[in-house]
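Any chance you could type out some protein's one-letter sequence along with its backbone structure tokens so I can compare the two?
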Amino acid sequence: MTDETGTGRVDVDDADLRTRVADLTGTTVEAATDLDGGEVGRVRRLDLADGRALVAKTGPTPLSVEGRMLRYLADHTDLPVPTVHHAADDLLLLAFVPGGGTVTASVERDAAERLAALHGATAEAYGFPFDTLSGRLAQPNPWTGSWVEFFREHRLLHVARAGRESGRLPADLHDRVRALAGNLDALLAEPAAPALVHGDVWRGNLVVRDDAVAAFLDPACYYGHREVELAYVGWTETFGSAFRERYRELRPPAEGVAARRPVYELLPVLEHVEHFGASYLPAVRERLDALGY
């Protein structure tokens, strides 16, 4: 066993992983190859003796949560996600989805159609049936009747508080986020209904094949406002004009969407401060400056 996480929690080394997977699948692991990704853990492709290929994720966060989210999306939506074969806190086994394609205009339009359909899944309140994760950050999802209240208490203030407690978010920026959060009623609007969002759509979480998205990976899902998803896609520059145009055809934007975008971009920027450090602090200041806080 080796500690690759810096948390004191050990990761599963190749020998232990091979033994455990053999017990779970009834066949041996012929090859284990590290894959890109795994920002909060390790991701490996496993080629099994029976011809199957699986993806094994190990690391410090409870991976059973990711497994539950993927199964929820598979059971309740048509969004393509990898099949979950095993989900424990310390080991997640997924079907390997082959890809390797590039994001073309056709891929962008396919992604727009997939996400527009996902956002058509609704609930009676904002939240999710269980608490989830965004990277290694806890993502509380208590059912809440107001979107503004949910976004204020369980997203902006929650993430800002985590950053303050870890020391990564300076006190002055924490206070400015709190001031903005206190005035969210004037900055945001309640959507017509809660919409199911993937929560972490960027190129690293897409498997592209044959001019389409073959799988959406690593969700951080909940029922919220689709504008949060779109703001994140825009901030990460995941897709371009073909995506935007097709999505608008399917789900026309509500009035005032451009004014709300910096508020919604503030959430992933704060999360990136917590995950990756001070290099994202200027982006926090820029959005607070733009919003007048």
Notes: The CA atoms of residues 106 and 211 lie 6 Å apart. The radius of gyration is 20 Å. The longest helix spans residues 147-166. The chain has ten helices and eleven strands.
